[in-house]
From TrEMBL:
Entry's EC annotation: 2.7.11.1
Taxonomic lineage of the native organism: Eukaryota, Viridiplantae, Streptophyta, Embryophyta, Tracheophyta
Gene3D superfamilies xref list: Phosphorylase Kinase, domain 1 (3.30.200.20), Ribonuclease Inhibitor (3.80.10.10), Transferase(Phosphotransferase) domain 1 (1.10.510.10)
Membrane topology according to the record: Single-pass type I membrane protein
Transmembrane parts of this sequence: 82-108
GO molecular-function terms, A-Z: ATP binding; protein serine/threonine kinase activity
Catalytic activity: L-threonyl-[protein] + ATP = O-phospho-L-threonyl-[protein] + ADP + H(+); L-seryl-[protein] + ATP = O-phospho-L-seryl-[protein] + ADP + H(+)
Species of origin: Centaurea solstitialis
Enzyme class, spelled out: transferase
Entry protein name: non-specific serine/threonine protein kinase
Domain Protein kinase per the UniProt entry, residue ranges: 142-389
Keywords linked to the UniProt accession: ATP-binding, Glycoprotein, Kinase, Leucine-rich repeat, Membrane, Nucleotide-binding, Phosphoprotein, Receptor, Repeat, Serine/threonine-protein kinase, Signal, Transferase, Transmembrane, Transmembrane helix
Main location, first listed in the record: membrane
Residues annotated as binding ATP: K169
Length: 401
């Protein structure tokens, strides 16, 4: 799915969209587009709502006849490889009116017998020139020495594109679960192209290729929260002030996803491995492959936003304890634990100016772990400083620190 709505796009829709064979649905509403729709299923089957509020779109879908135009003859030995450049809607590029448009800027010859040489790249780069070959060259064809992380969904590489460092996730392809891999790939693209938040990782682009697919993100030098907590030196540098700020950043990201998006989003896989830190210890939630929209979940009711709330409670305790709290919360008496038992012993006890915030976070974490999903707070409440009375009876006193 590709959602380009509400982006002030102008001009015609590039016919090169027809080469994006994995594109199944599209939304270009509320722009200033004109001209014929590409002859492909995604546009032909698009609803009127996905095409509305444009200038003069025409084609089979709209029922409007397009004016006859001269067609250019292309050399059969040439192919156009398309980069669709997407600029974040931050307002910093007013003259470009938040351009998200297809532009042709990279062409080369290929063997006419080779039918697997087409790559589609959708990029969100500052200079708009993050081409497929640059990434392959930077990674020396995915040399293992560039690997910075491995997960069930993909392998993450660090790539130096001369102008900036990026993180590139090469998607795992499993023969026994190819459809699930494709769904996760599309979910992450759909989610990260629709949301913008300082505590959510930025997607620069993606490439879909018969051999492999990958996603390109901003590079975050701090690495994963899990690795920081597991490293003694980094964990000690990760003091209480930083930990409180990271937890609040994660809460803000989840609150935004649940309550501020046009279609609320559930992450479904929040963990310390999926939270990345930049060089200033700012948290960025990542890995949206399993993410789901509330509207989709309404039919199954298998999960809801309270699952994210529970995961946030677990993650909050992990940040404060310095380790996964699995054994701790599996005990029926964990609610009776003292503050000293909860906090990471590698750090000195928090000072008075921060201890109340730490105590509050422990109480909030416990409330998020309530066995009854309906009794858990919303992330909107958590992000805005949930009063302790709504969580549990306050058990910790500042003198305990």
């Amino acid at each position: 799915m590709l959602n380009l709505s509400h982006n002030n796009l102008t001009g015609s829709i590039p016919s090169s969209f027809t080469e994006m064979v994995s594109l199944t649905s599209v939304d270009v509403s509320y722009n200033h587009l004109e001209g014929p729709l590409p002859k492909m299923r995604a546009f032909e089957e698009a609803s009127m709502a996905a095409l509305t509020k444009n200038k003069r779109l025409c084609g089979n879908n709209t029922g409007l006849d397009c004016p006859i135009q001269g067609r250019r003859k292309a050399n059969e030995h040439e192919v156009q490889k398309v980069i669709v450049t997407i600029f974040p809607t931050f307002g910093c590029m007013l003259l470009l009116s938040f351009v998200i448009a297809g532009i042709f800027f990279y062409m080369w010859k290929r063997n006419p017998n080779d039918t697997n040489m087409t790559q589609e790249m959708e990029a969100n780069c500052y200079d708009g020139k993050m081409v497929y070959e640059s990434i392959i060259e930077a990674l020396e064809n995915f040399d293992p020495k560039y690997i910075i992380g491995v997960g069930g969904y993909g392998t993450v590489y660090k790539a130096d594109l001369s102008t900036e460092l990026v993180a590139m996730k090469k998607i795992h392809t499993r023969e026994d679960d190819e459809m699930q891999d494709l769904k996760s790939f599309e979910n992450e693209i759909r989610t990260l192209t629709e949301i913008r938040h300082q505590s959510i990782v930025k997607l620069y682009g993606f490439c879909s290729h018969p051999r492999y697919s990958f996603l390109v993100y901003e590079f975050l030098a701090g690495g994963s929260l899990k690795n920081v907590l597991n490293d003694m030196e980094q964990a000690i540098a990760f003091d209480w002030n930083k930990r409180v700020r990271v937890i609040k950043g994660i809460a803000n990201a989840l609150s935004y996803m649940h309550h501020d998006c046009s279609q609320p989003i559930i992450h479904r896989d929040l963990s310390s491995n999926n939270v990345l830190l930049d060089s200033d210890w700012v948290a960025h939630v990542s890995d949206f492959g399993p993410a789901s929209y509330f509207a989709e979940l309404a039919y199954t009711m298998e999960v809801n936003e309270k699952c994210d709330v529970y995961s946030f409670g677990v993650l909050t305790l992990e940040v404060l304890m310095g380790k996964h709290p699995g054994d701790f919360i599996s005990s029926s008496s964990y609610m009776k634990a003292s503050l000293t038992e909860v906090l990471d012993q590698r750090l000195q006890s928090p000072m008075k100016r921060i201890v109340e915030q730490v105590e509050l976070l422990v109480e909030v974490a416990f409330s998020c772990l309530n066995e009854s999903p309906h009794s858990r707070p919303s992330m909107w409440d958590v992000a805005r400083g949930l009063p302790i009375e709504k969580c549990a009876t306050k058990r910790f006193r500042p003198t305990s620190a």
